[in-house]
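PROTOCOL LOG
Step 1. Enter all chains and additional molecules of the complex.
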Amino acid sequence: MPEWARQTATLGLAPFKWEASVDPRIPSVGLVESKVFDPEGWRPDYPNPALDDRTEHDIRWGARIVAGFTDERYDVRVQNWIDHEPAVLYDAIISIGAFEHFADFGMMRAGRVAAYREFFERCHAWLPPGGRLVLQTNVKGNNVRMDRTTVRDLLFIADKIFPESELPWLSEIAEASERRFDVVSASNDADDYARTCQAWLDGLLANRAPATELVGAQRVADYERYLAASVAGFTNRHLGLMRIVFERV
Ligand SMILES: C[S@@+](CC[C@H](N)C(=O)[O-])C[C@H]1O[C@@H](n2cnc3c(N)ncnc32)[C@H](O)[C@@H]1O
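Step 2. Run joint prediction.
Step 3. Record the structure below.
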């Protein structure tokens, strides 16, 4: 029986199938598992501005790309880039939201730049001359005047939400990529991320009860604080979102 029919027949009292899934205790995988998760039937139920604002042109563009995918054309791996050894060169590399984790909180600038340089060295080795590298990463914002609450909130995020992570300054990214990549374009889209975090926060607030049942009140409160502080941080430019296109030289 389809899920909607089960829910209608039981006036919504039947537990959802996913509620019976067993936590595999692999944090990077989360609660998704193959027995109850149906990828084709899955629909996001939280707002995503990038999808909500799509135009007919965007849909056709995406559909054309996806239609061109054959099994030989992609490969999905959970792997540290340090261990990655591709058999052939890539045409392009896109890195989204990982750079924040390449340096640890408390490292000095020289150590951070050295860690970032290692990443650029690898990307350089994996691309032909002229190959593009697209990097999206949160950065430290240039508004360094903060009140106590902001300082506490940002330390809370570093401590509780993203331990073993540190945000780069834009200059560190530029320094680490020097002599390996040219910058083709760079933009700070902090307002986009304020909007994204607000959408995530709205989704969490609207689902506070089931979220609490799933992970407990403390974890929900932590995530509400993290997301609200992020909205404020990006809006007030204590945080930034850099999207940089590099060209391998
Ligand atoms: C906060 S999540 C962001 C996920 C997603 N890109 C997004 O923007 O929603 C950080 C991601 O960075 C990846 N990551 C961090 N360090 C990595 C490394 N050394 N090699 C490969 N992936 C890494 C993690 O596996 C995780 O998927």
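Step 4. Note key features.
The longest helix spans residues 217-235.
Residues 28 and 78 are 9 Å apart (CA to CA).
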